[in-house]
Amino acid sequence: MSVVSSVNLAVVRTGEWTGRVGKSGIDKRPADGPVLFTESGVRGDAVCDTKHHGAWYQAAYAFDAEELAFWSAELGKELVPGNAGENLTLTGADSTSALIGERWAIGGAVLRVTGPRQPCRVFAGFWDIPGLVKKFTQHGRTGAYFAVEQPGEISAGDEIRVLSRPDHGVQVAEVFALTTRGRTDLADHVAGCLPDLPEKWRATVAAKIGSSRVTA
């Protein structure tokens, strides 16, 4: 069974690693009770870098508890729910293998998968791991961003129910592999999910597909 093991909200942090904005909400901590997920974001959370975060298609971010365990072993440091900057820590869900446009019911909310997370220097700085962006990219297990189709409260322990999956079969991991890992062999396959991508990301992925076909 796939469940939410933790719902996490930001503690705003400052420091050199936070970059040009000077503060970051990447440090998230487990909430004590139900949290409201809305079309504009997670109630009680904080988005500091609004240039790169906080769009409707980034209303919520999920990461797998299994991946936190992987990175804990890989890096020799204990990572706990919220440490990847995720609002939802999931168990048994394999969020990176979810399909673009896949719809989930969790608690009182309905969420729709919109795309992969892109690792950045703030993420590497928060974990204090030089070269983390490259390592995370090579590993390719990014977790997933979601839009909120139906607002509602989500709590730790809520079951995840898949409501629908698009026929194109394109996984979050495959979009990430094409756009950041040079997997041009996936171009034709990933093209099938373009209608389900947010407009801004659709343009980026379409350009990558186009250049892959020109050089093929």
TrEMBL record:
Source organism, top-level taxon: Bacteria
Entries under InterPro entries matching the protein: Benzoxazolinone_Detox_Enz, MoCF_Sase_C, Pyrv_Knase-like_insert_dom_sf
Domain MOSC: 29-163
Xref: Pfam families: MOSC
Name of this protein: MOSC domain-containing protein
Organism from which the protein derives: Saccharopolyspora mangrovi
